[in-house]
Amino acid sequence: MIAVGVLNNSVNTDKCIYEINSVMKPGGILLIIETVEDVPDILITQSFMMTEPKDQRKATNTMFLNRKQWLEILEENGFCNSEEFPGYGEYLEVLGQKLFYCTKE
User: Fold this and answer.
1) Residues whose CB falls within 8 Å of the CB of residue 62, separated by 6 or more in sequence, listed in order
2) What is the DSSP track for 37-48?
3) pLDDT in tens, 24-66
4) 98, 92, 95: which is closest to 66 by C-alpha?
5) I need a surface site. Which of 31, 62, 66, 89 has the fewest CB within 10 A?
6) Which domain holds residue 39?
């Protein structure tokens, strides 16, 4: 399953990832590309059209989940072998976007 720039507009990301997991077969691959920080140029173009979150983003007053939050949500909802690109600390990480590659347990 591939989700590019759409999960950040879900009301509850945990529930959304849980639902995705429920329709996937064991060993299925999930690819997610998402913004992982509140980058000004992305906020300018997207924040006005996004749904108000009812998950941990509301508590932290952010529009996007960060890298750590994504990895935790994926693991808590039955996805393993999560990899991220660019890798943690790599130069392109400054762009604030991540590709998460993971498999369903």
Assistant:
1) 38
2) S--HHHHHHHGG
3) 999 999 999 999 988 888 888 877 778 888 999 998 888 899 9
4) 98
5) 89
6) 2-104
